[in-house]
Amino acid sequence: MGFSKLGLSPNLLKALEDVGYKTPTAIQNKAIPAILSGRDIIAAAQTGTGKTASFALPILNQFSTGKNKDRTLRGKRIRALILTPTRELAVQVEASISQYSKHLELSSMAMYGGTEIEPQKQRLIWGVDIVVATPGRLLDMAHQRALHFDELEVLVLDEADRMLDMGFIDDINKIIERLPLQRQNLLFSATISNEVRSLAKRSINDDAIEISIKADKSSKPKIDQWLVTVDKSNKSALLSYLIKDQNWQQALIFIETKHGAAKLVSQLEKRGIQAECIHSGRTQAIREQILNDFKSGKIHFLVSTGIAARGIDIGELTRVVNYDLPGQADEYIHRIGRTGRAGASGEAVSFVSKDNFRELCAIESRLNHLLERKEFEEFPVKKAVPVSVLNFVPKHKR
Ligand code: AMP
C-alpha cells in the first residue's frame, strides 16, 4: 500500500516522492492514520523503523490542511514541540521535517544547547510552526520568555527512554507543566519501561492508542555492521582493495575533512576507481548534481564529510563506510541508518585505527554490543586496536 492511501495531502506525497520513499513502513502504516484522527499515541519503535516520518507527516498534514491551516502564528509562539535527547537527533529530525515540508508553507527549527542562544531566539521572533528541541535549551528559552506555549497544539516525546536515561525527567516535567492542557501527545520510545509508562501517565491522555512494532522484516533494518582494524597510513589502499577485490558496487564514504575528501578521491582515481566528493567547499548546485548522479547510479562511490551529508536521503543505499569514525555515537547511528532502509539489507563498514579507540567504545556502548572485527592479511595492523570496553561512558552526556 502506498502513502496516498494514508490520507496525506498531495504536497506531502510529492515530497515523499522526491526523497524516494515508496511504501510506508509498519510504524507509518499504524501511526499516521491514528495521529491524523487526532488521538494521542504511545508507540514502541526503534530508530531505523521510519518513526520520524510517522509523526512528522501527520503533523505537517494537519498543520497545512486541518482546521487551523490559515492560522497566523504570533511572535515567539510554536505549534508543535518535538523533544529529543540529543542535539544530533534534534538536527536530524528537523532536517527530515524540512525535507517533508518542502512544498508547504510551514517553518521549523532545531533548538539545542552548547551553542549561542541569541540566534535561536531571533529565529523565534515571528513564531515557528515546529520546534525540535533538547529539553535543557528549551527550558532556558521559556525562562527567558523567548518562547511561549499558549498556541501549542502537539507535543512529541521522541526516544523517551533515552531522555529518561540521560536524566531529563525533571526538565521534561517542568516543560509539560507549561503546556496548554488541550493538546495532542505523541510518545515514541524504543522500549516501554515502567519509567516510560509513568512519564506517559503524566503527559498523555488515558485513551492513547498503543502501537507496538514487532521487529519483523518490514520494519527492522538489516544492517550488517562490521569494522576493519587498519593502520591510518593504509586506509586508502584498504578501501581500494575492498572496492576491487570484494567487488563493491556502491558506497557512501564518510570522511572527516574536506581536504581529506578531495585527497581520497584522487587516491582512488589513481588506482582506477572513479569517485566523487561533496563537502562544504563545493557549491550547492554541484553538490546536488553529484548527489543525483549517485542516486541514479552514474557515480558508484561518493566521499562525503558528515556535514555535507546531513539531511541527504538516498533511497536505496547498499553500503556506508566510516572511513573516519565519527566523534559522536549518535552520528554513527545516523550514518548507518542511511542504509538498510525499510526492509532492504545494507552494510556498514567502519575503518578503525588505534587512536579511534575511545570513539569505538562509545559507539559500541551505544549499540550495546561489540561490532564484528575483521582484519585483512594484505593489510597487517602494526598499531593494534585494544579490546573494546562496553560500559564506556563518554565525558559529555548532554
Ligand atoms: P527513523 O526511524 O525515523 O530514524 O528513519 C530511518 C530512515 O528510514 C531514515 O533515514 C528515513 O529517511 C528512512 N525512511 C523512513 N521512512 C521510509 C520509507 N517509507 N521508505 C524508505 N525509507 C524510509
Total strand segments:
14
CATH topology of the largest domain: Rossmann fold
**What is the rounded distance between the termini?**
40 Å
- The low-confidence parts are none
CATH superfamily name of the largest domain?
A: P-loop containing nucleotide triphosphate hydrolases
Shape: globular
Topology summary:
Elements: H1 10-19, H2 26-36, E1 41-44, H3 51-65, E2 78-83, H4 87-100, E3 108-111, H5 118-124, E4 128-133, H6 135-143, E5 154-157, H7 160-165, H8 169-178, E6 184-189, H9 194-203, E7 209-212, E8 222-229, H10 235-245, E9 251-255, H11 258-270, E10 276-278, H12 284-296, E11 301-305, H13 306-309, E12 319-322, H14 329-336, E13 345-352, H15 357-367, E14 372-374
Parallel strand pairs: 1-6, 1-7, 2-4, 2-5, 3-4, 5-6, 8-13, 8-14, 9-11, 9-12, 10-11, 12-13
Helix pairs in contact: 2-3, 3-4, 6-8, 14-15
Adenosine monophosphate binds next to helix 3.
Nutshell version of this structure?
38% of the residues lie in helices and 18% in strands. The strands form 2 sheets. Strands 3-4-2-5-6-1-7 form a 7-stranded parallel beta sheet, sandwiched between helices. Strands 10-11-9-12-13-8-14 form a 7-stranded parallel beta sheet, with helices on both faces.
Explain what the structure shows:
The protein is α/β, with parallel strands linked by helices and 398 residues long. 38% of the residues lie in helices and 18% in strands. It contains 15 helices and 14 strands. The longest helix is centred in the N-terminal third of the chain and has 15 residues, at 51-65. The mean pLDDT is 89. The structure holds adenosine monophosphate.
